[in-house]
Amino acid sequence: MTLQPLDIGHADYVAITDPATAFWALVRKDRLAETLAGGPLLDAYRERAADFARELHGLRFELKPSAVYVNPTERCNLDCTYCYIPRDMRRDGEHMAADRLLAALERLKAYFATTLPAGRKPRVIFHGAEPLTNREALFAAIDACRDDYTFGVQTNATLLDDAALAFLTGRGVSIGLSLDGPTADVTDATRLSFGGKSVHDKVLSAMDRLRGYDAWSVIATCTAKNLDQLVPLVELFHAREAPTCMLNAVRCTLPGARTVKPADAALAHAFIAAVERSHALFRASGRKLVVANFANILLAILAPTARRLMCDISPCGGGRAFFALAPDGGLFPCSEFIGLPQFEGGNLFRDSMEDVLASPAFAKVTGRDVDKFAPCSTCAIRHFCGSPCPAEAHEMNGGMEKIGAFCGFYEEQVRYALRLIADGKAGDFLWDGWDAGVETSFSVNLP
Amino acid sequence: MSHTAQPQQTQTTPATSQPTAQPAVIASRRRCDADGVGLSHYILMDRKPAR
């Protein structure tokens, strides 16, 4: 075992990690030398290190797909600065015909029957582009296959009228929205229609109508255009009773996104301020607004296998925990790759899923391993972060064996998460009941 | 998620609770069957916040 110290910026504690197993401990600074010299902590860890290594290996290399991100259309009615779908495709692209979508879900059902235990439904998330531009096909598929899948839809909310909302909520479909600012001028800086119209008020209307529905969330994309507005944005989400949000660093896969890329340090500062504000609101109101992408970093530390998001792990979930289906039947490791033809691993209507999953295009993503390239291979937190995202690494930084777009931001998130654990606050930032079905495998708390 | 392994504990104070005196060492790990499928463009709402 190789233990590495990590300064977490805490007054009293320093972290030590064994990156190979994602083991961590917080040690009071005045006891660090004594602890590293040997004793109960190292003895206990030595007994479990092989188990932790097996657990991490299973999580990183032995999962089978249980979800598919289905793009039922290439089209979108918005022209967001940072979209990972090419502009021409969004403006002039094709819909998937309703019968074709149904045929796709039937084929996928047969595949998932070979990977999932009996009784566990696979998940289909309709994604985009904007899935509600192909509403009739989408709703027909949900009704036809409601017993076969757990459904979700990520939408820009502009087409989420009362009838659509009633249809989706009536069937228990999870709904994700997108909003980048607390005011229209901030949202408009990155999210406008092709005609240049604001969509801010339509999203607020959808949020108001979703109030009280458990299964909805909202994503804000953090860019250079809204960093100073993340705190009021969290306040808006909380006031509108969003159960969950994500404050995602903009994915820099396509060049347009890089025009609004924030600096790591500025992003970390603004992001942590927003997460802290969400906590203050919880303390004041008793109602949580979970910042899911940060909660996932906490889970990566506290319970690696309990992660909900599969971006912050290496290899990422693309092409192994899930994959993406394009409207023409093309299969990609993740939606993030749909604008990159070299990452198409095959076609659902022509190829077997097994062949697609083993294709060179998929292997390029599923083979991206932070243990095997610098600087990640010597990083103390590489299995809390995973150096997302491979699409960014490939397109922005020149290859799969490069870091993602926000290395420094992830380091700061991990330090902050460890400070919260040291201060006994971590539970405040997680979903209620996150630990149902989760068991303790290691616990050392030395006076 | 279902249980998959027998826990081994040296002591049982959860790392996420704040004791009165600062412990010299805090270390914990928890486990379950892995079933996460979210990505940065979507989070499946199967974990609900406290009300």
Describe what is shown at a glance.
With 447 residues, chain A is of the alpha/beta class. Chain A contains 17 helices and 14 strands. By secondary structure, chain B is mainly β.
Ordered list of secondary-structure elements with their pairings:
The complex is a heterodimer of chains A (447) and B (51).
Chain A: E1 4-6, E2 13-18, E3 23-28, H1 32-36, H2 40-61, E4 67-70, H3 87-92, H4 98-112, E5 123-126, H5 135-144, E6 150-154, H6 162-170, E7 174-178, H7 184-188, H8 200-210, E8 216-222, H9 230-239, E9 244-249, H10 255-258, H11 264-285, E10 290-291, H12 292-302, E11 322-325, E12 330-332, E13 346-347, H13 353-357, H14 360-366, H15 382-385, H16 390-396, H17 407-422, E14 439-446
Parallel strand pairs in A: 4-5, 4-11, 5-6, 6-7, 7-8, 8-9, 9-10
Antiparallel strand pairs in A: 1-2, 2-3, 11-12, 12-13
Chain B: E1 25-31
Detailed description of the structure:
The complex is a heterodimer of chains A (447) and B (51). By secondary structure, chain A is of the alpha/beta class. Helix content of chain A is 38%, strand content 15%. The two termini of chain A are 24 Å apart. By secondary structure, chain B is mainly β. Chain B is 0% helix and 14% strand. Chain B has one strand spanning 25-31.
